[in-house]
Amino acid sequence: MTISIAYAETDDEIAATFEVMQQLRPHLEQTRYVPMIRSLMASDGLRLLALLEDGVVRAVASYRVMNMLYCGSLVYIDDLVADERVRSRGYGAKLISKLKDEGRALGCSEIQLISRTTREQAHRFYFREGFGIECFHFRTKLQ
After folding, report:
1. How many degrees, rounded to 5, is the angle at CA 118 between CA 101 and CA 5?
2. N-acetyltransferase domain: from which residue to which, for each copy (predicted)?
């Protein structure tokens, strides 16, 4: 078994992440996925990392590097998901480790993410990976 982590940059590489990403984001449509990712890459600097096992995507992270007044440069994880068929094999931890290394190399001060309050299993994973809860995230819908 060969494990590798690679940036998904070509249309084919991005498309290969869809099945796993859809497990976290079921509203996504396959025909719109690559154009949506491409648009976010161009407008917001989104980056896509894929963990592959023998060439098959098993986990995906989308993220961006941001600058904030209160902490400077940071890595912000938009999405992190391991294929439900192969969870608990350390794939998410490998992606987090890669993102931490990249953040350090870019001079970032921290990594941030938001996780819904109902995702208790994910929260246990984040705590094991050294994340803590520091604030509330407020939102309102615009009509």
Report:
1. 25
2. 3-143
